[in-house]
Amino acid sequence: MQDKILSQREIRRYSRQILLPEIGLRGQELLKKAKVIVVGAGGLGCPVLQYLTAAGTGKIGIAEFDMVNETNLQRQILYGSDDVGKLKSIIAANRIEHLNDLVETEKINLRVNSSNALQVVRDYDIIVDATDNYSTRYLLNDASVILNKPMVHGAIYKYEGQVSVFNFRGGATYRCYNPTVTNSHFKNPQPSEVGLLGVLPGITGTIMANEVIKIITGTGNVLSGKILIFNIFDYTFRIMEIKNIPENHKITRLDDN
Predict the structure, then answer these.
(1) Average pLDDT along the chain, 257 residues, taken 10 residues at a time
(2) What is the dihedral of CA 168, 10, 97, 47, to 10 degrees?
(3) How far does Cα 41 stand from its chain's mean position?
(4) Domain-by-domain residue ranges, the chain?
(5) Which of 59, 114, 150, 179 could crosslink 254 through cysteines, CB 3.0-4.6 Å?
(6) Which residues pair with 162 in a beta bridge?
């Protein structure tokens, strides 16, 4: 007789999710078996980590090399004043372990680059791109293509958030949506340059976590081949279609450039 996957404690803890017929015990079991890596534990990564932990995701990897600074505290809600100067990967893992001791965490305190990306994400089922720079987004996209793993992507700018799912069951990739940036000096404007409302990454990251849960449990319509773009200043929401370009699925190696 096969052992039960969920304990009575887990069934009680996740009972509100289990009551949903689209999830049920089977969906909760799938969540427990799932392994998700979140690359970036900043404004987007914090809510993703919190909600995946609360939902009962079996294993969560946290890939982050940075330390907490005071300007992060306005939007990176896993950290507090006493955490300034400490490693985000360590603090984030401690926080989510306190939130749910049934979830396994892996701290990956390094900068993801072409020499380590495949090794870092290889053992996970889903990659979450919670980064803030183009080079790492392309790198994670290419790793997801090579390893045939879906990548949940989020981005923010001032009052605008974007969420999509790339390389899901052969669907459009990040390169289909955003052609390669050829200007090596181009970079994303940072909050220190343009400003950022603190609740925006919380909303965006929560939607990203929702996409991860939908992929794992097989529920709802996943944002594959589409990108959700919303503005919290005037509450406009739109979904754009992304053309799937076959050439972008032929990536065989990683390149930091």
Answers:
(1) 80 98 97 98 98 98 98 97 98 98 97 96 98 94 98 96 97 93 55 84 98 98 98 97 97 85
(2) 40
(3) 9
(4) 1-31, 34-249
(5) 114
(6) 155, 229
